[in-house]
Specification:
single chain; 421 residues; alpha+beta; 2 domains; 12-stranded mixed β-sheet
Length: 421
């Protein structure tokens, strides 16, 4: 039967040439759509490197001089008051951990970058590069569940090493030292006189759900530095971010009640006046990305429908023009089912003939790195998966597009079909 199909396609090569060109163009367009979805879906489901569930960002207020809680003691600075409140919150049974970060919490609008160089002979090639910097307290790694590269906990038992050095992500480790470990290796900031040791390598950290892990570093703030930062920048949630992780899931109303009942959540004239969920902040940050994905999905569905109707129309016209052939085959003993499979198989064979050209075009397209490689490298499995999904989609649409008009042709009586001859 396969040899017979090749003869039919060859005899109709002039008519099939236009169908071949149409299928080639559609195949390439669908591959682009499938590849983009693969990148977005794969990236979205990769580990973030942190967890913001049950995490709440605290906001602070100052008692006015007219408030009954106001104290005139000026020895408690803003920084000391905040540290006292954090210490008191750690003692509360419902609280698991508390931390402070400077422009560095997940899904925050903080965006601090800095240059850093490895203390090696090839450090000159990093002079123009900046890396994301997270300035945090030690509790940050407990609050947001950030682990080290081996999956271990980053805790106070290593605090002396952590405060004296920095932590880097695996991407920065690879950027500086290739496949060698970065732990205990030396780096330095530009124009700095002293070197800094890398104390640990964290797990990969992604800026958000639609971006790949980035090369970044963590600097720890001790209490003295927290005092200095607080006194200088104040309590703006977008500057100094104090986050508390609760042991259980809480609604906004439950968290508001917890804050309201916390008599110890104040020091001097500073007090905790509210909390916002980091999950809500995540939704706000990703809203535009989800909207873009929704719009793109609708465009993709619209494109698929147009491709389906185009293929159906093309094969419908092709089958209608061959009514006489259909009647002759029925008169010579072919069954209706055989006629249907014949037309459908012709469509699949046309699609198969497109694959070599499509493979060459797509391969060259990838070789020139024109698809999105910022969030995901063009690996072999990405190429093959996109190619297979496109082939299955095209095969399904061609099958339906051929079978629907073929069913109509199958219902013809042989004598009626021969009238077209």
């Amino acid at each position: 039967m396969l040899k017979h199909l090749f003869k039919i396609l060859w005899n109709q090569r002039h008519q099939n040439g236009w169908i071949f060109a149409e299928l080639s163009l559609v195949f390439f367009a669908l591959w682009l759509i499938c590849d983009l979805f693969i990148v977005r879906i794969y990236t979205y489901h990769q580990p973030l490197g942190y967890n913001v569930e049950n995490c709440w960002r605290l906001s602070f207020g100052n008692y006015p001089s007219t408030a009954p809680e106001y104290v005139s003691d000026t020895t408690i600075t803003k920084g000391k008051a905040m540290l006292q409140i954090m210490d008191r919150m750690r003692q509360v049974p419902q609280v698991e951990s508390v931390c402070v970060a400077f422009y560095s919490s997940p899904y925050s609008f903080g965006n601090s970058w800095t240059s850093i160089l490895p203390c090696s002979a090839d450090s000159t090639r990093f002079t123009d590069k900046n890396f994301h910097r997270y300035v945090v307290s030690l509790g940050y790694f407990d609050v947001f569940r950030v682990k080290d590269k081996s999956g271990g906990k980053i805790d106070a038992r290593r605090s002396s090493q952590l405060y004296d050095g920095i932590l880097v992500t695996p991407e920065l480790e690879h950027e500086f030292f290739g496949n060698m470990s970065a732990v205990r290796r030396s780096v330095k900031f530009p124009n700095a006189t002293n070197d800094i040791k890398i104390a640990a390598v964290t797990n990969p950290i992604r800026p958000d759900d639609f971006k790949k892990p980035e090369a970044a570093l963590f600097q720890l703030m001790n209490d003295k530095e927290i005092l200095q930062q607080t006194d200088e920048y104040g309590y703006s949630p977008n500057d100094l971010e104090v986050t508390v992780r609760m042991k259980s899931n809480m609604t906004q109303d439950e968290m508001n009640e917890f804050i309201a009942q916390g008599n110890g959540f104040s020091a001097g004239n500073l007090y905790v006046n509210g909390a916002s969920s980091w999950l809500d902040q995540r939704d706000n940050i990703l809203r535009d990305s989800f909207q873009r994905m929704t719009v793109f999905s609708l465009i993709a569905i619209f494109t698929l429908l147009n491709v389906f109707f185009g293929i159906t129309g093309t094969f419908w016209l092709r089958i209608e023009q061959r009514r006489a052939e259909t009647g002759l085959r029925l008169a010579l003993g072919s069954t209706h089912r055989h006629i249907g499979w014949l037309f459908t198989s012709e469509g699949w064979l046309l699609l198969t003939s497109v694959l070599p050209l499509a493979l060459v075009v797509i391969f060259n397209f990838c070789y020139m790195e024109l698809p999105d490689t910022n969030q995901m490298d063009m690996s072999a499995w990405r190429f093959i998966l996109g190619f297979l999904i496109t082939f299955v989609l095209m095969g399904t649409m061609i099958g339906l597009g051929s079978w629907i008009p073929a069913r109509r042709a199958m219902k013809l009586q042989p004598a009626e079909a021969l009238h077209y001859e």
